[in-house]
């Protein structure tokens, strides 16, 4: 189970009851003869309440310490049997520390930051395996794409550091994974040249990293760095000379019908407004009133 900012104790309880089987009247657990590993990811995500407590953590502590939890409907204690719990995530995020009353029940292991070579090796295997089947002509670009991605990620994490006004400038390797995941969803029949792959890469990197930036200077620096990085890695000379990252757009919403493909949208501003209006994706704002376009 992955915790989020708005995860509540009710969410944790519902997750448990949906995954376990009812053994007795007041006990839950995996099927008889087996054990279950209960993995909690993003441990530090829940927002503390007024008193500084992260309530999902208190429910987890109760399960680990007392072997169960109190059902919220009938206030009966439900035993959780044959289950081991593993926690994953940072223990200190944005000044919020995980309660030691929960952590004291666990053996704590710390994972160092992966080296550049480790990141390249991990993500290269993912991209190479997919593009080898769907994009054999440009299969050799997979290693270059990963090299550019890791290099850009390391430059972003070194230059765009979190500050009190930019506390959300926290980037992880999960951002790399999300960018590559969407790239692998693209219609490979539309990727004919290295420049096409470079434009797809610029779009996804902008969505994962550039959209978080709140400063104009940070956005301009990121755009220049991304264009320079991918041009140097793929050895593109003039293909991206006049490229503006904010004007590159990929998606499937501009296509009509049931068969849609994730590809670059080449349309003028007027054509894009017409497409968005037809799809009902434009919201017109007036003071105090929100008007949705009429559906034809």
Automatic annotation (TrEMBL):
Transmembrane segments: none annotated. InterPro entries: DHC, DNAH3_AAA_lid_1, P-loop_NTPase. It holds the Pfam family AAA_7. GO terms for molecular function: dynein intermediate chain binding; dynein light intermediate chain binding. GO terms for biological process: microtubule-based movement. Signal peptide: none annotated. It comes from Eimeria brunetti. This is Dynein heavy chain, related. Residues 146-243 form the Dynein heavy chain 3 AAA+ lid domain. GO terms for cellular component: dynein complex.
């Amino acid at each position: 189970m992955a915790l989020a900012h708005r995860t509540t104790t009710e969410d944790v309880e519902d997750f448990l009851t949906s995954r376990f089987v009812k053994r007795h009247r007041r006990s839950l657990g995996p099927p008889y003869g087996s054990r279950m590993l209960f993995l909690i990811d993003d441990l530090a995500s829940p927002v503390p309440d007024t008193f500084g407590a992260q309530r999902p953590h208190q429910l987890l502590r109760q399960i680990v310490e007392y072997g169960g939890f109190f059902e919220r409907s009938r206030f009966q204690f439900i035993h959780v049997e044959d289950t081991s719990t593993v926690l994953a995530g940072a223990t200190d995020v944005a000044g919020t520390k995980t309660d030691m009353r929960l952590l004291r029940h666990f053996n704590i292991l710390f994972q160092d930051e992966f080296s550049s070579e480790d990141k390249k090796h991990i993500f290269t295997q993912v991209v190479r395996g997919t593009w080898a089947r769907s994009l054999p002509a440009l299969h050799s670009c997979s290693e270059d794409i990963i090299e550019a991605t890791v290099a850009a990620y390391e430059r972003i994490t070194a230059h765009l550091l979190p500050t009190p006004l930019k506390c959300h400038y926290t980037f992880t390797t999960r951002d790399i994974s999300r960018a590559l995941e969407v790239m692998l969803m693209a219609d490979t029949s539309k990727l004919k040249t290295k420049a096409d792959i470079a434009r797809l890469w610029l779009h996804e990197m902008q969505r994962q990293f550039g959209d978080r930036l709140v400063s104009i200077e940070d956005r301009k620096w990121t755009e220049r760095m991304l264009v320079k990085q991918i041009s140097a890695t793929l050895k593109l000379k003039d293909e991206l000379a006049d490229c503006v990252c904010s004007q590159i757009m990929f998606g499937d919403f501009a296509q009509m019908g049931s068969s849609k493909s994730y590809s670059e949208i080449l349309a003028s501003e007027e054509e894009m407004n017409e497409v968005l209006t037809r799809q009902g994706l434009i919201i017109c704002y007036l003071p105090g009133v929100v008007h949705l376009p009429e559906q034809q």
